[in-house]
Amino acid sequence: xxxxxxxxxxxxxxxxxxxxxxxxxxxxxxxxxxxxxxxxxxxxxxxxxxxxxxxxxxxxxxxxxxxxxxxxxxxxxxxxxxxxxxxxxxxxxxxxxxxxxxxxxxxxxxxxxxxxxxxxxxxxxxxxxxxxxxxxxxxxxxxxxxxxxxxxxxxxxxxxxxxxxxxxxxxxxxxxxxxxxxxxxxxxxxxxxxxxxxxxxxxxxxxxxxxxxxxxxxxxxxxxxxxxxxxxxxxxxxxxxxxxxxxxxxxxxxxxxxxxxxxxxxxxxxxxxxxxxxxxxxxxxxxxxxxxxxxxxxxxxxxxxxxxxxxxxxxxxxxxxxxxxxxxxxxxxxxxxxxxxxxxxxxxxxxxxxxxxxxxxxxxxxxxxxxxxxxxxxxxxxxxxxxxxxxxxxxxxxxxxxxxxxxxxxxxxxxxxxxxxxxxxxxxxxxxxxxxxxxxxxxxxxxxxxxxxxxxxxxxxxxxxxxxxxxxxxxxxxxxxxxxxxxxxxxxxxxxxxxxxxxxxxxxxxxxxxxxxxxxxxxxxxxxxxxxxxxxxxxxxxxxxxxxxxxxxxxxxxxxxxxxxxxxxxxxxxxxxxxxxxx
Length: 583
Prior knowledge:
Blueprint: H1 7-28, H2 46-49, H3 165-168, E1 192-194, E2 197-210, E3 222-235, E4 241-253, E5 274-286, E6 291-303, E7 320-334, E8 337-350, E9 353-354, E10 360-361, E11 368-379, E12 385-398, E13 411-424, E14 428-441, E15 449-463, E16 466-477, E17 486-501, E18 504-518, E19 531-545, E20 550-563, E21 570-582
Antiparallel strand pairs: 1-2, 2-3, 2-21, 3-4, 4-5, 5-6, 6-7, 7-8, 8-11, 9-10, 11-12, 12-13, 13-14, 14-15, 15-16, 16-17, 17-18, 18-19, 19-20, 20-21
């Protein structure tokens, strides 16, 4: 007979019914209800507590793989092992050291990172030995004290100027950059570019006193001022070339000189102010690397020299002459041999003479045209030495066949000279030549004019601060003195430039000249000897270069004329100060 359904009986009955179910669950799966870990404070993922999915379908990712985690769709789990315990460990805060380092090289803990990627053709960099690496053992001869004698190899850059890294092309893949040339003249003009032309300009303003501006036997001094502009234009082309060099001056005097008496040997106008200009434009067309077409246009504006016998007595001002000429030629190179030929033309005209009494005298008989040709052959004998031979022939035709004194002054002449140009280690550069010049006149009463010709232009860099220069030139000039064929002019200049500082330069100059008037008549007191004038000039200059654009100059000069003609000798002293503005 069944027992009555009391409360206790009901609890026993339910427990008996639940025990088989619990046993079935325990048999078929491990216990996931609670996982005990060493660190009870560390949270455990819910996936470790969830029961397995008994109905999970096997896939290729978990078949035969014991590491597959059913909770991640067959992927390996990174939570297979429990996390280490933090009990008793020092907690760490912030970012660890070297966590923000780059991917190559070494970090702050001296740990090697990834190797850098090399570009094609790039050399592999050498690894740094790092701190604490012992020095390599060096074997070799020893000193008396027992130490190893080390002989360092010669440095490849010991005799080279240092180059900034930005100019040395250190960056990978960049070609080395050419270093800028050194500035040999830190106070020289820089110039401005106008298109493809480099333009340099300057102007000098000077003032001073001349004790004998007319260069007459009786000195009469006067103050003076000078304005001297300059312009140099140079092309910057890969082929062909064009250069223009224009320089001029005007000298004005503060007061007029008293008129000289007619018939005096040394006469001077009352107004001795006079201009002076010389300029030329040179061009070159490169037809090929060995063939060049050359051209030259030149202009000369000036007056007769104050001591010249061409200066007439009683003049109001000096007559101004103008010579305009050009040369057109071709230059051909045959390996080391160079041949240049050219045709020349020059036109010279004079202003009329104005006298103090108001009369005007014509100078048309002094105007003439000159046609000629010039040739030069040079051979590059060795580096720095190039000997040459040069010859020129010309003819002069005056506008008037007979001059004002009844002489026919048309003539033929020329010169021939030989020399060499050289360049020795940039210390001695230039050229020097010696030859012969002569001229024959149409009038048989005029003797043939001839003489030794010298031409040179030498520059010797004695020290980086001292430069020595030597110039010489010879020319045959026209005169209007009756019976005198012409004047053979020779000048020799010796100059020394010294820089006390780069901004303070002293210049010493000495010039010697001879004026040989060949002819036995035409001069008062002529005893059958040609007139010969000798000039001596001693000059000292001091230049203070404040900036590249502004200079201060000072000049002291002594001019001496020694002539064998009576009352023709003279002397003068010139003092002047000035400023130079250039760009």
